[in-house]
Structure formats: C-alpha cells, structure tokens
Known about the structure:
Elements: E1 5-9, E2 15-19, E3 27-32, E4 47-51, E5 59-63, E6 67-71, E7 79-89, E8 92-102, E9 105-113, E10 119-126, E11 132-137, E12 143-153, E13 158-160, E14 164-168, E15 176-183, E16 186-190, E17 199-205, E18 210-216, E19 222-225, E20 232-240, E21 243-251
Antiparallel strand pairs: 1-2, 2-3, 4-5, 5-6, 7-8, 8-11, 9-10, 9-12, 12-13, 12-14, 15-16, 16-19, 17-18, 17-20, 20-21
Amino acid sequence: MKGNLCFLSYYHDGVVVYDISNPTDVTLHAYYDTETTNTNYSGYQGAWGVYPFLPSGKIIASDVLNGLFVLELTGALPVSWQYFHAKPSQKGIALEWATEQETHNKGFHVQRKSGKNEWHTIGFVAATSTRQYELTDEAPLPGWNTYRLEQEDVDGTRHYSTFATTFWEYTAADWKIYPNPVVGNTLFLAPPLHDNLPVTIQLYHSTGIKMYEATSTTNGIISIDTQALPHGIYYYTIHQEGQTTSGQIVIPR
C-alpha cells in the first residue's frame, strides 16, 4: 500500500491499483496487463510481484513468463469499471458492461481477439449517462471467444478493459439445406452467420452409393447442380470443423 493506493500483482490480470481511501467503496484506480495475449486463466501465469516504493515513483512488476516491467502511474483512469461480462445468447454472444464513473468518455470500441495478438473491432457503443452498456456479437467464432473494450476519450486517448471470455458452441447443424424436395435442378446450402471454415457435403443415394461430394470455403450460399443425379431419396452429411450433421432430401423426377 502507498498512501490511499493499494498495489497488487493480480496474476493473469497483471498489476492492479485500487483506491482504498473509502474502505466501504473500494474502486479500481489503474491497471496494467503484463500479458495481453493470454486467454488461459486456469494456471498461475502473469504478475507475481509488484514494488511501488522506489524514490523515483516508478513501479516494478515481475511477470512469471515475460520478466521485469517498469511502470509509471500517470493519473487516474478516465473510466472506473464496474463489470464486463460475455455470455452466449440466442442471437450470438451478449456483451454487457457498466462503469462506476466516467470522465470525458466518448465511448467504447468493442474488440474480439482474432489471432495470436490481433484484435478486430466488431462495434462501437457511445457513452451514456446511465453508464450501462450492451452489444451482441452476432458472428462469434467457434469455440472460445475473448473480448476487450477499447475505451476512447473525447481527445482520442484510448484505454483498455480487462478481458471477457466465453465459449460459443458450434455445430454443423447450423447449416441449412433447401428446398426439400428439390425444386428444379438446384440444391442450396445456407451457411451460419459465423461461417469462415471449409465445409464438405456428401450425398448418398438410398442404395448407399455416394453420388456427390464437394468442399467449399465460400462465405455465401453454396449451390449444387442436381441435374446429373438420378431421382430418388438421398441422405446427406455436412462436415465442418470436426462437427457433422446429416439428414434426408428428395430429388423428384
């Protein structure tokens, strides 16, 4: 502790500084994440030590994997965070957050991690007097999704929130095959919103013979010419990212 500020090495969340001038209303004063690429919170990585008592006012932090950090506390954050949550919903992943207080806040760029150390902005939410916010990611990635908020001041200065992570359960059943029975000579596959992976479709005649197979990486609707296929009942399988769905279609005369 230094004055009214409490400095903590908070493992995966790096270094955090709390204002404890009011013990009944402790607030986050500042923080620094020593490993922004980390999304695994089941171990003991991150900051294990912090020392804020140097005569220069500098702060020394030690990260178990990334080594020594020399930090400087330059002032209070323009936004004091209350919470930041991510959870699956019917429309995608719902993101909700709130702040305790805001100063000169323009709004929040909502970002999703899309690579080893790459962030993609999926939306912007302007600051409001209620200090309560929400946004839905309607195209989440299969598996774990990690988000952060890039808070922007009115002067363009930007600061970052801690991460919110949740799992998006994806199945190949999200693909739609139509019309059934087939009309004309064309069969369509419509992708889910988050389609960005190769998909393979196989058509088997009711006799068990495989009559058609194709793999596509398109992000749009896939069309299949059925003119060369004999009429009858077909069984289909759709494979994508380790997931499989199957069903039955009819190709009439």
